[in-house]
Design a protein that fits this description.
16% strand, 6 helices, 5 strands, alpha/beta, five-stranded mixed sheet, 179 residues, globular, 36% helix
């Protein structure tokens, strides 16, 4: 199955940034957004943003939320034939979920340690590629990094400005850079 073109990836990332920007007006703004597209129909299957603070659930990252929505909507556990888009490089938990969901590819914008960690300190520096390198034979997931990276970086900056202006706190243990 053919993966999306560079142009399709860029357009989908721009749409995702627009979608994720909607969270900036909420009580729990987040720069982390994710969407899943069906490769065959080229239609968006689901969209979500990070709801960790709203749900008081450390697993409610955008990628996990969108996988939950997509599997529920499609009524299938495997998302083969689908591509996940994320405004940021997935953390180890989210990349593991992508592997378990059998996504064909993960396309991301901002880098975790170089970009996101400046505003949202991270708990781990393990890369998605390190996890992919350890998958069992027969499974694969293609990584497409830094699509519309500067646009995603701007989203992080805008979210940090909103959080600072509204005196919103980062999650516990995220006030100082951990790495």
């Amino acid at each position: 199955m053919a993966l999306p073109t560079d142009e399709q990836n860029a357009e989908r990332m721009r749409l995702l940034v627009d979608f994720t920007s909607q969270s900036l007006g909420s009580d729990h703004p987040s720069p982390f957004g994710s969407s899943i597209y069906d490769v065959t129909t080229e239609e968006v299957l689901a969209e979500a943003f990070d709801t960790v603070m709203r749900d008081c659930d450390p697993t409610s990252h955008a990628e996990v939320n969108v996988i939950r929505k997509a599997t529920k909507k499609s009524q299938r556990l495997s998302l083969r034939g689908c591509v996940l888009y994320s405004t940021c490089e997935p953390c180890p938990m989210c990349m593991s979920a992508c592997i378990w969901a059998e996504l064909d590819a993960v396309v991301y914008g901002a880098a975790t340690m170089e970009d996101a960690n400046r505003y949202w300190p991270q708990s781990s520096d393990m890369t998605p590629q390190e996890l992919i390198d350890r998958v069992r034979p027969g499974l694969s997931c293609t990584l497409v990094p830094h699509v519309e990276r500067s646009l995603c970086q701007q989203l992080f900056l805008r979210c940090d400005e909103v959080r600072t202006k509204r005196l919103l706190q980062l999650p516990p243990n995220r006030g100082e850079s951990l790495i």
